[in-house]
Amino acid sequence: MHDDPKQGVVDRNCQVHGVSNLFIAGSSVFPTGGFANPTLTIVALAIRLADRVKTII
Ligand SMILES: Cc1cc2nc3c(=O)[nH]c(=O)nc-3n(C[C@H](O)[C@H](O)[C@H](O)COP(=O)(O)OP(=O)(O)OC[C@H]3O[C@@H](n4cnc5c(N)ncnc54)[C@H](O)[C@@H]3O)c2cc1C
Question: What's the 53 CA to ligand 1 centre distance in angstroms?
């Protein structure tokens, strides 16, 4: 995840750079590897993404 398409596949909203209808949910969007349990962050990102997709559709 990065605002710059040269440094990340998705932007801060988990949207794939340059593709308006493609989003990625899951730990693969993490910009760095963490050391603590990741599931809560994954769920928080998924809920945020769902809220965003609802506003787009
Ligand atoms: C043994 C173990 C214990 C863990 N314990 C904890 C814990 O206590 N707390 C915690 O917070 N985290 C824990 N984790 C980490 C947590 O499980 C992962 O970070 C989390 O599941 C990642 O979620 P994800 O959706 O990004 O990926 P995944 O859960 O790996 O989901 C990816 C999905 O994509 C599917 N897939 C893969 N390739 C394809 C394909 N080509 N086509 C279609 N589908 C595909 C897979 O089948 C899978 O269902 C643990 C992990 C392990 C391995």
Answer: 22
Q: Is 41 in the pocket of ligand 1 (CB under 6 A)?
A: no
Whether residue 27 has its Cβ less than 6 Å from ligand 1 = yes
Cα 30 to Cα 57: distance, rounded to the nearest angstrom: 25
| Ligand 1: residue whose CA is nearest its atom 7 | 37
0.85 surpassed by pTM? yes
pLDDT along the chain (57 residues), means of 10: 97 95 95 90 95 90
Instruction: Locate 8 and state its tokens.
Output: 């990340």
